[in-house]
Amino acid sequence: MGDNQEHNPLRGITVPAQPHIISAIKEAEDDLDKISALINKDPSIAASVLKIVNSAAFGIKAKIGSIERAVMMLGINRVKTLVNTQALQSSLGSAGSCEIMSFWDGANDIALTCYLLAVELNRQLLPDDAYSLGLFHNCGVILLAQKHEDYLKTLSESYDSHKESDLTTIEDIRYQSNHAVIGYYIGKGWKLPDAMTQVIRHHHDLEYIRNGPKKGAELTFEMLAVLKMAEHIVGLHKSLGHSDADHEWPQIQSSCLESLDLTDYEFEELTDVIHDKMALD
User: Fold this and answer.
1) Cα–Cα distance for residue pair 103/53, rounded to 1 Å
2) Buried b vs exposed e over 86-102: b needs ≥16 C-beta within 10 Å?
3) Which of 36, 189, 220, 278 is 20 to 30 A from 180 (CA-CA)?
4) Entry's InterPro entries (predicted)?
5) Cα distance between residue 185 and residue 224, in whole Å
């Protein structure tokens, strides 16, 4: 990261405060009734949580029609995760653009793919943490789009760049910051785990990814590898970046797969499994 980013990383962008519902749910601890009542007070978040838990990826056969039942079936921790991520979406909004409104559809696909990858790989990364990471990791895109009218064009140019440089390089040049740095500060403000905020900060840092996991930070790199796999599987370069090719993946593929002890063939098989469960094809 450049010095300008470090001295003034947000460049006048205001990080949205964490909504009261998040702290209130934490204070409720393991009280199912209190947690359900708090969620039900926010119809938007309640509806979003029910939509997610009833998606095919969660594999629940009987449709869940109430928050109370969702809390009982999924468990308190998972519901807290869903509330936190849906509260983020509600706080950031859509920036009044059809493209940014569709951003959240892509973010939900990434989140669910991260969740499924964590389940299938069965390693250190908890599926609920993987889901949160998938939804949070590109949240800086929304704030940059709200501040800069030309940002979506810049984003497309970045994704379509054939240069062997970080995708965020063009953003750094034009805005003296980028969506990964801004997302990092949002995550810090919302008290996400340190490992998760570090992944958000470095998720387009090609040198960092190619260097592989550092001693003592294996879980952080595992989270990062799962995120980059999810982006590639979903085809974020098409939906968000309007690019025909994922120019990042060939540069980081070996490092990501090695960190998860996966061969190319095993990754292809895993991709097919995720496509079937997500119906992404």
Assistant:
1) 20
2) bbbbebbebbeeeebee
3) 278
4) HDOD, RNase_Y/CdgJ
5) 17
Expressed as residue numbers, the domain containing 82 is 17-92
72 assigned to some structural domain: yes
Total domain count, the chain: 2
Phi and psi at 8, nearest 5°, equal -145, 65
CB 247 within 8 A of CB 166: no
Structure tokens that stand for 218 in this block: 């294996």
**Nearest by Cα to 35 from 89, 73, 83, 86:** 83
Given 39, 67, 92, the domain boundary residue is 92
Q: Cα(281)–Cα(266) distance, rounded to whole angstroms?
A: 19
Phi, psi for residue 204 in degrees, rounded to 5: -120, 10
Residues 230 and 108 in one domain: yes
CA nearest 158: which of 142, 171, 140, 143? Answer: 171
The pLDDT tens digits of the residues spanning 219-241 come to 999 999 999 999 999 999 888 88
pTM confidence score: 0.85
pLDDT-derived band at 87 (thresholds 50, 70, 90) equals confident
pLDDT band at 100 (very low <50, low <70, confident <90, very high): low
CA quadruple 206, 251, 183, 8: dihedral positive or negative? positive
